[in-house]
Amino acid sequence: MAYEGYAALVGAAHTRRSGSRLIALDDWRSSADGTEHYLVISCADPAIADPAFKHLQTGAARMAGKADEEAVDKSAHLLIQAPAANAAPNAPALMLLTAGAGVSPAKVATLLAGLVKLGSRLPAHKPLMRATHPDGVAGKTVAVRIGITAAGHQSRELATILRSGKLEGMELISESRAAWDQDPGFVVVADVLKVKAVNIHGAMTLGRLGNLFKKPNGDRYDKARIIFKETPNGKKESELFDTSDLERAFTKKDVIRFETDISSKYSKVSMTVIDKMRELL
Fold first, then answer.
1. SS3 category, 193
2. How far apart are CA 4 and CA 35, in angstroms?
3. Is the pLDDT of residue 64 over 80?
4. End-to-end CA distance of the chain
5. What percent of the chain has pLDDT over 70?
6. How many helices (H) and strands (E) does the chain have?
7. Is this structure's pTM higher than 0.70?
8. Which helix (H) or strand (E) is 212 found in, with range?
9. SS3 helix, strand, coil % of the chain, rounded to 5?
10. SS3 49
């Protein structure tokens, strides 16, 4: 459906309630080639307490003064990248969502599904709500319903990273609970052994790494924080594994750092935020 048609629906005209929270679509823009869409979705939550502020020089504190009928309003940026032009008809779009505003992927899907329902009533979109009947009879059509679902998925595997990236080291963790000899008032809950990868000969595979924890002195460690670079020259990252489950897939996550202050509330799309999100693609 055309982005231009939906532009008229943005704002207070389209909101969804989730319990006592109010979720609204505040702004929507599209890239010049139409392959990316940028949205600002706000969430007003009355359950969030009245925020407090403190003066950095004097130490004086004050409350913001939230009234009973008001809610703390935060916003999230959403980047949607359309499937490639030659992708299968049911290929999913890629969605990136900033965290911390109380807007989950499922609530985004609910909001967008409602927007699709409203958009289907626009005259320019009505033809899209009909499709040729499966029996192929000329002029015979069936009604079309468009649904939206959103789901995050665990897409990273350590085996793949070891093949294409670089192992930097490990923190081996042995969980225990014992009194500390120095003072009985303290209890040791874990022993941590830090290991650095140097002069590794041959390919570091998942099987080779797993064998380390089957050898004497290696089998005493319950968990391992694997430190790696996804590419040899990439950024150093880490993930915590049970030593018996190194095959576990995990979710790609990252922290975006900005050179300037970022607001918790936006009414319009900030391309500063979108450009940083695009670095994760």
1. strand
2. 14
3. yes
4. 24
5. 88
6. 5, 13
7. no
8. helix 206-212
9. 15, 35, 50
10. coil
Q: Which strand (E) or helix (H) includes residue 115?
A: helix 105-119
Going by C-alpha positions, the residue among 224, 125, 141, 136 that lies closest to residue 175 is 224
Please state, in angstroms and as integers, the Cα–Cα distance from residue 88 to each residue in 27, 82, 85, 99, 128, following that order: 29, 12, 9, 30, 19
CB 219 within 8 A of CB 163: no
**DSSP-based three-state secondary structure for 85:** coil
Highest mean pLDDT among 54-58, 149-153, 173-177, 198-202: 54-58
Please answer whether residues 277 and 256 qualify as being in contact, where contact means their C-beta atoms are separated by less than 8 angstroms: yes
> Pairing state of beta strands 61-63 and 52-54?
antiparallel
SS3 25: strand
Angle made by CA atoms 204, 210, 211, in degrees to the nearest 5? 95
Residue 267, number of CB atoms within 10 A of its CB: 12
Of 75, 140, 138, the C-alpha closest to 111 is: 75
- Cα–Cα distances in angstroms (integers) from residue 145 to residues 8, 83, 119, 202, in the given order: 21, 20, 12, 55
Phi and psi, residue 184, nearest 5°: -65, -10
- Write out the two tokens for 148: 């939206």
Rg (CA), the chain: 26
Question: What are φ and ψ of residue 242, in 5° steps?
Answer: -75, 135
Q: Smallest Cα–Cα separation from 254: which of 107, 156, 144?
A: 156
Distance CA 195, CA 231 (A): 20
Residue 138 burial class via C-beta count within 10 angstroms: exposed 0-12, middle 13-18, buried 19 and up: exposed
Mean pLDDT of 112-131: 82
